Amino acid sequence: MSESLSLTQKIESLLFTKGEPVEKSFLAEFLSCSEDNLEESLNIIKNRNDTVTTIVESDREVQLVLKADFSSLTMRLHEQEEKQSIGAAGAEVLAIIIYRDKVSKADIDHIRGVNSSHTLRHLLIRGLIEKTGSNPTQYRVTTELLTHMGVESRTKLPLFQSIVDKLDEKEEQSHGNAQT
Questions:
Q1: pTM of the model as a whole
Q2: Is residue 98 in a domain?
Q3: Tens digit of pLDDT per residue, the chain (180 long)?
Q4: Which range of residues forms the domain containing residue 23?
Q5: Residue 119 and residue 55 share a domain
Q6: Which residues, at least 6 apart from 131, have a Cβ–Cβ distance to it below 8 Å?
């Protein structure tokens, strides 16, 4: 199936899946295409009028985003989401980020065993977490969340060191089992 996809379709599917800026050099290497072919395909995506998405790019990175025409619609959705509880999945992801700090989506997904994209977006919209670093993007809690929780830093949370030690131990066991 993937062999019958055009380069443009492959780029668009990868950018959609990542949901964050991706280095152009990575895309060219991953898709075994020239930078000229990559740019040509990115221009096709940018110039289409029959879709709700477009490309935002810098010299090094590219991201698939919604066109500005849809901002009022998506703003209404975000406002509605902010009124909702973060739920069990949100609490779970938030706990991972609090106790792990600067953790990637892949690590969060690995720990939870499910895709966390929607939950991460929900927590970002609420201002409870923020992105930091890139390649891969990592997440950390915001000072607003810590203020709301009434702690000066995440290390002041109850049983912080005990929980971090148990997480480290479980991770070491997981890596040990993967190597055997």
A1: 0.50
A2: yes
A3: 456 789 999 999 999 888 888 899 999 999 999 999 999 999 999 888 888 888 988 889 998 888 888 878 877 876 776 666 778 888 889 888 888 878 899 889 988 889 998 899 889 888 889 998 767 889 998 888 777 777 777 777 777 677 767 767 766 766 665 555
A4: 2-69
A5: no
A6: 20, 124, 137, 138, 139
